[in-house]
């Protein structure tokens, strides 16, 4: 199982530690292609934006499922979700904020969940992967 985890980078790194916890939890279910999103000391590599885009798009194509944490708004995450939906990937979004974008929560092809704690989120993830 190849998992594309999506979370904010240039959108803001305040949830980076949480992303790392989510990625660690997801790793029991498969290979997380975007492990770098959880790196606390993430330094943008000396690669161009085109190289980042093309690499991530290839991972998105390769992936079997997309899991996104969308509490910190991110243009890149929104873009990945849209591309993933077009590719008909099973797509799941999680947020702690009261609401997220209507373009995410209103999309019938994205399953969106509001959660309160990391424990709740892990329970949601376990249910998703057990049903696959
Ligand atoms: O350096 C990067 N590496 C990378 O993989 N991304 C991808 C993965 C994330 O899910 C998403 C974050 O987008 P943004 O940077 O707009 O918050 O874009 C984004 C950047 C920087 O935009």
Automatic annotation (TrEMBL):
Keywords: Glycosidase, Hydrolase, Nucleotide metabolism, Transferase. Gene3D superfamilies: 3.40.50.450. Its EC number is 3.2.2.-. GO terms for biological process: deoxyribonucleoside monophosphate catabolic process; nucleoside metabolic process; nucleotide metabolic process. It catalyses: a pyrimidine 2'-deoxyribonucleoside 5'-phosphate + H2O = a pyrimidine nucleobase + 2-deoxy-D-ribose 5-phosphate; 5-hydroxymethyl-dUMP + H2O = 5-hydroxymethyluracil + 2-deoxy-D-ribose 5-phosphate; a purine 2'-deoxyribonucleoside 5'-phosphate + H2O = a purine nucleobase + 2-deoxy-D-ribose 5-phosphate. GO terms for molecular function: 5-hydroxymethyl-dUMP N-hydrolase activity; transferase activity. Catalyzes the cleavage of the N-glycosidic bond of deoxyribonucleoside 5'-monophosphates to yield deoxyribose 5-phosphate and a purine or pyrimidine base. This is Putative 2'-deoxynucleoside 5'-phosphate N-hydrolase 1. Belongs to the 2'-deoxynucleoside 5'-phosphate N-hydrolase 1 family. The keyword Ribosomal protein does not apply. InterPro entries: 2'-dNMP_N-hydrolase, DNPH1, Nucleoside_deoxyribTrfase. It comes from the Bacteria. Substrate binds at residues 19, 80, 101-103. Monomer and homodimer.
